[in-house]
Design goal:
It is a single chain. The chain is an alpha/beta fold. About 40% of the residues lie in helices and about 20% in strands. Strands 5, 6, 10, 11, 12, 13, 14 and 15 form an 8-stranded mixed β-sheet that branches. An 8-stranded parallel barrel has the order 20-21-23-26-27-28-29-30, surrounded by 7 helices. Strand 29, helix 24 (about 695-705) and strand 30 form a beta-alpha-beta unit. The chain is globular and about 90 Å long.
């Protein structure tokens, strides 16, 4: 094949090398606009895994690269005057210029033509397509090739919020990959610093747009900008200067990071690679890793697949998955730094943990493998904060107090509808279901949404708090749980609103009944879907009646013996229908602004708080994101909702999301709703519960230790395993969980198996 590689960075050079190694008969030219020794970055970071991949692909260049690596194992975080060091992280760095020179030399050995100072205009790319069998577009972040065929590649470019500048220094930071956070007169400024050769380190300075503007960095020359950065970080630079290699850029050289993702990576005989196809934020240091490993993969597929189109398809299919994984981690990391000022008041222990786990690629138990001593010290700190000084148990087993309610741990059994009630009355199914989960070790067990009136039921199978027999059935459960287990019980009360009179969950969710529908009401006459009833827009008499039904339900829950109460104001049910502008179309004092939309829910919540005993905690569940952009409730607005709840003496907010509209487009993933809890907790200093695709002890411990929530709710895992908490304790070899006395023989066997790395099956 005759191949043109546009761009002489790591992607273009290493693809050319890889192709020549497969078949020396290929005629390959690498075309680069800059000189051979020009480079506008400093160091790059690679992992041991990437080095192994390079060695398997080309042992010669891998050995040369390895000779120039700087290795370090530690991460140091300097925050609030405290330097926290953890180990076991395993990084290696090399200068970008050195890497390029090594790859250039290897390319020449393999008879690859290198054309430097050759600027390919966008209009000339069509001619290259005709001249060569394959055109690799590795022409960088601002790819002209991607722009030329934008209608085919369909790039999505998301410009991120923070400003940063890429600098270098002779202060090597040779003991650790170092993060430095400095508070200035205009806000926080931070640096990412790491050594990449014997006497040089990368030094990336970053700050918010507001801080950048307040300093006037945008109007400064590069020299003035660098001098100011030297002043900010003077005590860490030890007299060393900061250096720029971006003198070709006019102005201060600060930029915003653009996240690039393309719908397609190939068009005819043109294929994208490296930053032209996708970018990964510098805070996870994987851009060069992606480029090199993509080069290996595409070269392999071009020789294993029957034709170029098949090779491109396989390359895109398989590499896209890895790119999306890294971009997901990079997005989490990027967003953490964009909101870092939210976390800078955390204790240095918790701040360090939050930083280390920001991308979700490093988990609690992964940290234990890396640095068991540091993690144990962090766990002891967490337990001490919870009033359990001297313990080194995992965070999930720290006690927690809300008003007079004391929980033995932070694990919560989420509300999960059972659809087994008869005329609103809980049955033996409910007794067994909730009793088993209370015996299973969780600190707090929720009932499903229990409805305040017959008309407020979601389905005919939903339980209620509106008849004497309901109270008796719930009291039977509370008495058993309190007598036989240390678990506490929370009653969740609510009204279905526009989602009422629908089928059981295992029939057709949220669809109207085939017959026997009852009238429904909501904030406005907006049906849940075209198939559902149009609800009556509530008038003042309706509001007063429903408010009083909530109060009566709360009093019934108190008489039944519940330890905690939650008002359901999420998921499109009645109170949620007031909160979200998607369903609240009112033009009176209950519609329009957030203050107005919250007016009626707060009226109900305040009345419930007044009726509920002062020594018992009250929670409210909210949907923190309608997943429809600015048309619905956004995470920004959720923070304000939480502040209003806090002012209404709500003790903790149960932070869910979505289910308020059929138009919602959630972004699913592990712990995908936890960021909303994190934001509310750390911006309002209000206690929160995290929910949403949380299913491992690792998830629970990571969320708690990083300060993203105070309690963690698990739903489906508790449907699959009522004893999830006890089994999780055995899995991490925690022997302190209290098991029911008749089950201790099972506990002992499970612990022995766990110690041997075995399970039940």
């Amino acid at each position: 094949m005759r191949i043109a590689c546009l761009g002489g960075g790591p992607a273009g050079l290493y693809f050319a090398i890889s192709m020549k190694l497969h078949d020396p008969a290929h005629e390959i030219v690498v075309i680069e606009r800059n000189r051979p020794d020009d480079t506008f970055g400093w160091g790059v970071v690679l992992s041991d895994e990437t080095l192994d991949n390079l060695a398997a692909n080309d042992a010669v260049s891998a050995a040369r690269i390895r000779k120039h690596f700087a290795y370090w194992d530690d991460i140091a975080v300097i925050h609030d005057g405290v330097k926290t060091v953890s180990t076991g992280h395993g990084f290696c760095g090399i200068g970008r210029r050195q890497l390029l020179l090594l790859l250039q030399a290897r390319a020449r050995e393999l008879d690859i033509e290198l054309r430097f100072e050759s600027d390919v205009a966008e209009s000339a790319i069509d001619e290259l397509r005709r001249e060569f069998d394959l055109v690799l577009a590795a022409d960088g972040l601002n790819s002209r090739t991607r722009q030329r065929y934008a209608e085919h590649f369909q790039p999505d470019i998301d410009v991120r919020a923070c400003k940063f500048v890429w600098l270098g220094t002779r202060q090597t930071f040779n003991d650790a990959f170092t993060f430095i956070f400095e508070k200035t007169e205009h806000g926080w400024v931070w640096a990412h610093a790491y050594q990449f050769d014997a006497d040089t380190a990368t030094f990336i300075v970053e700050c918010s747009e507001a801080t950048w503007r307040a300093f006037g960095f945008g109007e400064m020359s590069q020299q003035a900008s660098i001098a100011l950065c030297e002043r900010i970080f003077a005590r860490h630079l030890d007299g060393h200067a900061l250096m720029s290699n971006a003198n070709h850029i006019r102005g201060s050289a600060w930029i915003n990071f653009p996240r690039v993702l393309c719908a397609r990576w190939s068009f005819d005989n043109v294929v994208l690679m490296g930053d032209a196809a996708a970018t990964a934020h510098f805070s996870i240091g994987s851009g060069t890793k992606l480029a090199l490993e993509s080069a290996i993969a595409l070269a392999e597929y071009l020789h294993s697949e029957p034709d170029m189109a098949s090779a491109f398809a396989r390359y895109e299919e398989e590499r896209r998955l890895e790119v999306l994984r890294l971009q997901s981690a990079a997005r989490n990391s990027t967003e953490w730094f964009e909101q870092v000022e939210r976390y800078l008041d955390l204790d240095p222990v918790q701040f360090n943990y939050s930083l280390l786990t920001r991308s979700q690629r490093i988990s609690h138990e992964n940290l234990r493998l890396r640095d068991p001593a540091w993690l144990e010290s962090a766990e002891r700190w967490f337990q001490a904060q919870a009033g359990n000084a001297g313990s080194a148990r995992a965070p999930m087993f720290a006690p927690y107090r809300l008003r007079d309610m004391q929980l033995i741990n932070r694990v919560v059994v989420s509300p999960m509808a059972q659809y087994k009630a008869m005329d609103g009355c809980p049955t033996d199914w409910h007794f067994v279901h909730y009793a088993e989960r209370a015996k299973g070790g969780a600190g707090l067990v929720y009932t499903e949404m229990t409805c305040v009136s017959p008309e407020g039921r979601i389905t005919p199978g939903c339980p209620g708090f509106y008849a004497p027999e309901h109270e008796a059935a719930w009291k039977r459960l509370c008495d058993f749980v309190h007598a036989e287990t240390p678990a506490k019980l929370c009653a969740q009360i609510g009204h279905s609103g526009p989602k009422g009179s629908t089928q059981l969950g295992w029939q057709e969710m949220d669809a109207p009944l085939a017959e026997g529908n009852w009238p429904i009401m909501a904030a406005s006459a907006v049906p849940w879907s075209a198939r559902n009833q149009t609800p009556k827009a509530m008038d003042r008499a309706d509001m007063e009646r429903v408010r009083d039904e909530f109060v009566a339900a709360a009093r019934m829950a108190e008489r039944a013996g519940f330890d905690m109460l939650e008002v359901h104001a999420a998921h499109g049910y009645l109170l949620s229908s007031f909160i979200t502008p998607l369903t609240n179309r009112r033009d009176d004092e209950y519609g329009g602004s957030l203050e107005n939309r919250m007016r009626y829910p707060l009226e109900v919540i305040r009345a419930v708080r007044a009726a509920w005993p002062a020594h018992k905690p009250l929670s409210v569940r909210i949907s923190a994101n309608d997943w429809v952009g600015d048309e619905g409730v956004t995470p920004d607005e959720a923070v304000e909702i939480a502040r209003l709840l806090q002012a209404a003496e709500v003790d903790i907010v149960d932070v869910s999301a979505g289910q308020t509209s059929t138009r919602a487009k959630p972004q699913y993933g592990r712990m995908f709703q936890t960021p909303f809890s994190d934001r509310i907790r750390n911006e309002t200093v209000m206690a929160t519960m995290a929910v949403g695709n949380i299913y491992q002890a690792d998830h629970v411990n990571s969320i708690l230790m990083a300060g993203r929530a105070d309690l963690v709710c698990l739903a489906r895992p508790h449907l699959a395993d009522p004893y999830w908490t006890l089994h999780a304790a055995a899995g991490i070899q925690d022997g302190e969980c209290e098991w029911p006395s008749p089950y201790r023989a099972g506990r002992d066997q499970l612990q022995r198996l766990a110690e041997r790395g075995e399970g039940w099956v």
